[in-house]
Amino acid sequence: MAKKVLGRGLGAFFPDYNESPDDKKETESKPAPIAIDPAERVNVVLNIPVEHIRPNPHQPRTEFNEEALDQLSHSIKRHGLIQPITVRYLGQKRFELISGERRLRATKLAGIAEIPAYIREVNDEEIIAFALIENIQREELNPLEIALGYQRLIDECDYTQAEVAERVGKNRTTVTNMLRLLLLPDFIQASVRDESISSGHARSLINLKNEKDQKKILKQIVSKELSVRQTEDLVRSLEKKNELKKVSTTKPSRDPFLEDISGKLRSRLGTKVDIKSKGKGGEIRIEFYSNDDLERLIQLLNEAD
Q: Is 51 noted as a catalytic residue in this protein?
């Protein structure tokens, strides 16, 4: 359980954290803080100067609504920050953000100098997972940000999809479905990002083979406010239509006269005969399966003379 120590100076927990001269004047009449063991530098909540916190280079969140950020800033200025951010201590009075970038930005926007922060001990590999997991638990990420976070765990931490699922507390199917969003073209990803469509809508569009069809269905989803089920039905209907069209183009209708002639030749010669029309002429293809079979066909053709 985290130790609640809000309001105490950082020098009490970080011996190398020197207070400013003004801070020293305020505390000259107070007893010197008791030195804390280095192990106590983690699993505590402290008020930390915002300028001493650097952004998380592995931050999975990329979208920040400016209006919502401004509203949060006003709330923090009036009521304070209820939920601390999460950081790790780097030494030399510096910290690195693990999660809570929106809260940190809003605090800076409010002009507040310090922010409550929960300090965790994590390595470079773990910070990616922690940042992703904490953001997911707070439901602060859009589906694409989650998918990108999963992919980073796979690429940068060598996790399997099963390990990703275990770390983030999801089943493997959920992780696989989220990763499929990254296969979509940019215009569909943009629609997911701005919440024009849901991740369920987007996954339905993956089954369409060309962007023209995807754009067509996407337009209908937005204009008609289709549900995911309606979208799936529409996609299946379009796929079936495309398949029938493909069959009709790959198997052109045959000339009834040529079909009749080839049928008579097959019956007469006892082998496969194919007649193809080419312009004003064409070709007759007669199959044989051995030299003896060829001689048999030649004899039959001679007899026809």
A: no
